[in-house]
Design brief:
Distance between the termini: 39 Å
CATH class of the largest domain: Alpha Beta
InterPro entries: Glyco_trans_2-like, Nucleotide-diphossugar_trans
Order of helices and strands: EHEHEHEHEEEHEEEHHEHHHH
Organism: Echinicola rosea
Number of helices: 11
CATH superfamily of the largest domain: Spore Coat Polysaccharide Biosynthesis Protein SpsA, Chain A
Strand order of the largest sheet: 3-2-1-4-10-5-11-8
Pfam families: Glycos_transf_2 (PF00535)
Helix content: 40-55%
Protein name: Glycosyltransferase 2-like domain-containing protein
Length: about 300
Amino acid sequence: MMEERFAGFIITYNRPVKLTETIEKVLSQTYSPEKLWIIDNSDNEDTERKINTLTYENVIYHKVGYNAGPAGAAKIGLCLAAEEGVDWIYWGDDDDPPVFPNVFERLFNIIRLESASYKIGQIGIVGQYFDEKRGLLVRISDKQLKNSKTLPVDNIAGNQCKLINARVVTMGIYPDEELFFGFEELSFDVKLKIAGFQSVIDGSFQYTLREKYGKLGFKKGVVRKRNVNSLWRNYYSTRNLLYILKDNGYYTAVVYQIIRRLLKIGVAYRYGRKYGHYNMQTTLVGISHFLVGRKGENKHIGYGRK
């Protein structure tokens, strides 16, 4: 039915049960990858033992040997798949399988139809715009999604069926592995855009997802529940966004983001003293580590993907 050679990888960390569920859903797609690498960041043998019980011949286990984070694991997966000579690579995560059984087939239909109109570097189902002056990801309106089949975007959200044109990987475009965790997809997407490639999504598909999960009609200023246990992410998102902006020459956005995040320290105390204090700690450490050039995993902040 389709001529494109298609492989993929799934990043995992200490979640063997969720991983096997995701593998099943990926390989049961109406158009599925010919090979699927499991890039295992785990610090134990549970995942490897679980993979060894599976009967899929096209699932290939790759033990990293240390926790490379999503950024390092993504680079490994992209390179392994590109070396096979495939045309497109699925970039997946262990707890975010395709929502519908025909997602890949639908995306490949767009690739075939629009390849003459767009220099497609990647395609997916959930996208955003990127404000280069402020360093902000910008939500696409419901109206624009509903009326668009193929929509150029700046960023394709992580774990949203990102399909990568293998040609860009052979050109040396992949996420900065030293980021470890947080905005690794944005790191890749900005490089992709600078190299002259386009990121596109199926806009009507994203609209369907918003409808399915009750996310239509989103309004700014809506206060959402805050969880102090997830604030370790704030360290990585603060630090890594600043690196991405600086490395790509968005210096005005670097200044804007530092000021913005410092001002938000006081606001965070509205969610409680504990939340406000930890938010302040992760923000200040994230900014300071950016200023001194520190990357990689911060074991003092933690890594909560368990």
